Amino acid sequence: MRKLNSHSYRIILLSALFLVAAAFLHQPANAQSAAEILERMEEVMRGDSQYAEMTMKIERPRYDREVSMRSWLKGRDYSLILITAPARDDGTVFLMRENDIWNYDPRIDRTTRLPSSMMAQSWMGSDFTNDDLVRDSDLIDDFEHQILRTEEYNGHEAYVIELVPKPDTPIVWGKVLMWIRTEDYIQLRIENYDQRDRLVNTMELTDIEQFGDRKIPTTITVIPADKENERTILTYQKLEFDIDIDEAFFSRANMQRVR
Fold first, then answer.
1. Residue among 102, 96, 99 at smallest CA distance from 78
2. Would you state the CATH architecture of domain 33-255?
3. pLDDT tens-digit readout, 203-250
4. Which of 15, 56, 110, 143 is 20 to 30 A distant from 178 in Cα terms?
5. How far apart are CA 147 and CA 153, in angstroms?
6. Percent helix, strand, coil in the chain (nearest 5)?
7. 41-63 pLDDT, tens digit each
8. Please, which residues have CB within 8 angstroms of residue 116's CB and are 6 or more apart in sequence?
């Protein structure tokens, strides 16, 4: 059997290293885990803290209704939403502080803690749930997730990720599908399914615009699967990321004085 000299060994070793490096550089996008993609998406879409001004239009066959609001957010555990219009709802506040959700109604000057059973109910008569607008479940810790595929969606290459709630989490959905743009981790679409694997609603995130140093969809449209000619459209007019805000801002006492 012919023996290889040291020069031949070096050629084989270098060739192997080149192939390994080439494989690493050209590995598919799916080499990222679903959790890593979701973490990057949350960094892009939320930031460490956030201030927003927005309007929510509720469209029904017999009427339309519009709600204006301001919101503050810090991390995953603190958020506060102040309703500014219509006049009858002006001053209404929703507060999430860690595991507690509170609602302040200025008409009766009363603060009420929302039980977990109400998180799946409609928020302000819209197609959003209380969980959608106030709690925003922890995508990393509350779900099992996997990448189903990469596909083209509305002209963008997108990861399609399946999220299934863990058994010990108070999440109403049986599963959630998310479309996340591969180039910059912007969220494009969400489908929520019930425990019987039936589509409940679809959220479409569109009209991507620049806010500061990041691009964000400025319109979120929620479309119920079983109701014709009904939808809710949330539109951002102003967004500021990584604002200086203390946890003390998110207090029950502040619900009555924030404006």
1. 96
2. Clam (2.50)
3. 999 999 998 888 999 999 999 998 999 999 999 999 999 999 999 999
4. 56
5. 15
6. 20, 45, 35
7. 988 888 889 999 999 999 999 99
8. 170
